[in-house]
């Protein structure tokens, strides 16, 4: 890294450090702007991008094309931009992680899961209708239908049980 590159990286790190609150669990909560999806928004030298990607790259260098900066397991703060809590993730791993995070907010009983899975597999309508009906995201409905999530859940409706 030459001096200009070093100074640029340093400026990016200072930009991040001026906009985080360091929590006792080690997370760096982004206090700057928020994007529409609730994630932090960095606006550095006229270029807007996701705060966690920006922070990851400020310490680790550019991500490979197509990769996202995703939260490691153990960091449960969506607005955390601590580069040590982030890792390069492929888009599918990234969306799986977001799905499981949303999924954790709802308490599913075994019967709920079995009925929801039966509806996703055999119910009428597209993924959107199924997702709305079952209180899940469309991505989650698609992943259940493809056998990625809930692999061990039996698909049974209440009538059949
Ligand atoms: Zn964190």
List cofactors, ions and other ligands: zinc ion
- How far do the termini sit from each other? 65 Å
The proportion of strand residues reads: 15-25%
- Look at the structure and give the mean pLDDT: 86
- Biggest sheet strand line-up: 3-4-5
Broad structural category: alpha+beta
**What is the overall shape?**
elongated
When the domains are counted, the total is 2
Tell me about the biggest sheet? 3 strands, antiparallel
Q: Which regions have little confidence, pLDDT < 50, spanning 5+ residues? A: none
What's the total helix number?
6
Order of helices and strands: HEEEEEHEEHHHH
What is the share of helical residues? 40-55%
Q: Please give the number of β-strands.
A: 7
Report the radius of gyration as a whole number of Å: 20 Å
What does this protein structure show overall?
This protein has helices at 3-17, 51-60, 91-104, 110-122, 127-134, 138-145; strands spanning 20-22, 28-30, 33-34, 40-44, 47-50, 68-71, 86-89. The chain is of the alpha+beta class. The strands form three sheets. The protein has a three-stranded antiparallel sheet. Residues 27, 75, 77, 80, 82, 85 line the site of zinc ion.
What is the secondary structure topology, with strand pairs?
Blueprint: H1 3-17, E1 20-22, E2 28-30, E3 33-34, E4 40-44, E5 47-50, H2 51-60, E6 68-71, E7 86-89, H3 91-104, H4 110-122, H5 127-134, H6 138-145
Antiparallel strand pairs: 1-2, 3-4, 4-5, 6-7
Bound molecules: zinc ion (ZN).
């Amino acid at each position: 890294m030459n001096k200009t590159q070093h100074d640029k990286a340093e400026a990016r790190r200072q930009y991040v450090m001026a906009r985080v609150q360091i929590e006792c669990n080690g997370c760096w909560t982004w206090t700057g702007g928020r994007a529409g999806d609730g994630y932090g928004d960095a606006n550095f030298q006229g270029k807007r991008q996701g705060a966690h990607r920006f922070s990851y790259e400020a310490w680790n260098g550019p991500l490979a094309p197509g990769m996202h900066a995703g939260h490691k397991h153990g960091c449960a703060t969506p607005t955390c931009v601590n580069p040590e809590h982030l890792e390069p993730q492929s888009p599918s791993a990234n969306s799986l992680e977001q799905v499981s995070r949303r999924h954790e907010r709802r308490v599913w009983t075994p019967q709920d899961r079995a009925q929801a899975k039966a509806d996703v597999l055999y119910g009428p309508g597209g993924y959107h209708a199924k997702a709305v009906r079952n209180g899940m995201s469309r991505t989650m409905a698609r992943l259940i239908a493809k056998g990625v999530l809930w692999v061990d859940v039996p698909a049974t409706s209440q009538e059949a049980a």
